[in-house]
């Protein structure tokens, strides 16, 4: 795919525009999808991950295309750097811009933003349209997705990726919460799932199901590895991710630690060592 194609504006549904912005995000991804949501000339920007001149021009073009002169606000699905990098740039263009962020992540917002904390069930009005925020923690300490029921579109943030999987690892990641969030999202029965990384998916139920299956397969292989006896985190990582470059060891081990934390809460695994590296054993 050429850079030009990857960076193009995409009309996802009426009033939903995807604006891929180049960001420093986790591989294999190179972009964060910002979205412009608009109705009756009222619009918000979701997850402006970058604030360089190219990113700002792309966001302005999307707002223009949606007939929005000045956005009402910026909604952050969560506060990882690749989702918030453009907030300052947008606030300098529109100083009155409201910033909304998940309540439990307010402490991670720049205090200058004056961000307002939002929770599951909060409604957001855009002219005559009503959108609902869906609490979807698991990938981050706190996380909200946006449900536009009239279009059956779920803006998923980092709940799922358009291709491949979303990272869930310690300290923020929580596998139990993540699985519950996938279920909560699936219960909405979205047709379109628009994630922050990768392509927009028009087989909404499938992408949510795939994410769940991927997590449960990872858990099953972890339990299988522990059947051979207690193991330290490095050995588990080497077994479950045999071909990983060394640079990715830390992320992989933090994923496994998040899975182990879930299994320990469920009393299926125990920690039999003296530090976080383990060893871990089947309970
Ligand atoms: Zn993230």
Write up what this structure looks like.
The structure is a single chain. This protein is 31% helix and 26% strand. It is α/β, with parallel strands linked by helices and 283 residues long. It folds into 2 domains: 3-202, Ribonuclease Z/Hydroxyacylglutathione hydrolase-like (Metallo-beta-lactamase, Chain A); 227-282. α7 (233-240) packs across α8 (249-265). The longest helix is centred in the C-terminal third of the chain and has 23 residues, at 204-226. It is elongated, with a radius of gyration of 20 Å. The site of zinc ion has 5 residues, from loops.
Q: How is this fold's topology laid out?
A:
Blueprint: H1 3-6, E1 10-13, E2 16-22, E3 31-39, E4 42-46, H2 53-65, E5 73-75, H3 81-84, H4 87-93, E6 98-102, E7 116-118, E8 123-126, E9 129-135, E10 144-148, E11 153-157, H5 175-187, E12 192-195, H6 204-226, H7 233-240, H8 249-265, E13 269-275, E14 278-282
Parallel strand pairs: 4-5, 5-6, 6-7, 11-12
Antiparallel strand pairs: 1-2, 2-3, 3-4, 8-9, 9-10, 10-11, 13-14
Helix pairs in contact: 5-6, 7-8
């Amino acid at each position: 795919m050429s850079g030009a194609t990857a960076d193009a504006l995409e009309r996802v549904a009426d009033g939903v525009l995807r604006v891929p912005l180049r960001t420093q995000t986790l591989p294999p991804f190179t972009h964060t999808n910002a979205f412009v949501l608009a109705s009756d000339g009222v619009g918000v920007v979701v997850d402006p991950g970058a604030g360089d001149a190219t990113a700002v021009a792309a966001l302005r073009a999307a707002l223009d295309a949606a007939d929005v002169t000045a956005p009402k606000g910026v909604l952050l699905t969560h506060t990882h750097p690749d989702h918030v990098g453009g907030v300052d740039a947008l606030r300098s263009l529109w100083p009155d811009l409201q910033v909304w962020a998940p309540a439990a992540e307010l402490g991670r917002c720049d205090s200058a933003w004056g961000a307002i904390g939002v929770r599951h069930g909060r409604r957001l009005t855009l002219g005559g349209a009503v959108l609902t925020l869906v609490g979807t923690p698991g990938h981050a300490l706190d996380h909200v997705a946006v449900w536009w029921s009239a279009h059956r579109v779920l803006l998923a943030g980092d709940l799922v990726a358009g291709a491949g999987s979303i990272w869930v690892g310690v300290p923020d990641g929580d596998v139990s919460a993540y699985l519950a969030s996938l279920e909560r999202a699936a219960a909405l029965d979205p047709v379109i799932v628009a994630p922050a990384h990768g392509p927009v998916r028009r087989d909404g139920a499938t992408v949510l199901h795939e994410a769940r299956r991927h997590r449960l397969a990872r858990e099953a292989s972890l339990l299988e590895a522990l059947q051979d006896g207690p193991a330290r985190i490095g050995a588990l990582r080497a077994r479950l991710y045999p071909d990983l470059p060394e640079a990715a060891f830390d992320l992989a081990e933090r994923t496994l630690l998040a899975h182990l934390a879930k299994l320990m809460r469920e009393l299926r695994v125990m920690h039999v060592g003296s530090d976080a590296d383990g060893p871990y054993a089947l309970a």
